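Researcher: I'm preparing a figure for a lab meeting and need a structural model of a single chain. I don't have an experimental structure, so a prediction will have to do for now. The sequence is pasted below. Please return the structure as tokens so I can convert it later.
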Amino acid sequence: MRLIYKNCIGVLTSASIFSILTVASIILVFISLPRILPIKAVKNFVTAISNEFGNFVVLSLKITLHLLHRPNWEVEFPSEISKYNWYLGMSNHMSWSDIFILLFISNGKIPLLKFFMKKELKWIPIVYLIHRTIDMPFVNRHTKEEIQDNPKLKKIDFENSRIAAKKFSRYPSTAFSFAEGTRYSNEKHEAQSSPYKNLLIPKIGALATALNGMPEVDTILDFTIIYKSKKRSAWAYACGEMKDAKIIIKSYPIPYILKNKGFDEQAQYQEDFKNFIEDIWRKKEQIIKQSKF
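Model: Understood. Here is the structure written out token by token.
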């Protein structure tokens, strides 16, 4: 009987997410139509409307899934944050469900999260419409081998991410990246020989280029997600089996030496940014060790 109930919750959750996002995407398309006009004031106004509607959509999903899952989340937010400021955000990446949890807990507290998404996702219609209407950028991450064969690709990746991030300047936003670049698994951890017991090695490219395109940003918000369940699949989340979680958010001021500099222009900048993020990662590792269920 419990298995039947769990699967029913999974079906209702999947149907609810799909329905809300489909309707919201269609509405956002109509809201965003005036953005084709080459008038900056119009683009800024429509961006503000689109972002606020995006926040409403997140709230709708949050209420629906709270009713279905009855989640038990322990959330620690810093007191000095504001939904009227610009931020960089990053998190460890444990599951497909991370995106929903991050959106839900930040809703109404900080500006709408703008995820850097893999370019392969643009073929999903709903994802593509969200990208076009509320400026969630696709990133083209080439492999080390591809960059070694053609070093110019690194410059192209950097410029594409920087241009995408500049759109966030139209309205308070939180440019967000899963710094590990992929979901955690024991196999990936071993393949990397990661020095962190509970984390993969952070990749700093998306964060550095976002900062380069967002001069308004003075603070980075680091989200640490810890689940009670060992299950990590999308279906496990839909069935409510990942409803117990701890999310600890820490804010870190961005050093002045990292502001308004190009990631690929100065080797010292790369090293400074890398050290800054890795210091946060070491603190994150301790947070996970101290906060596990």
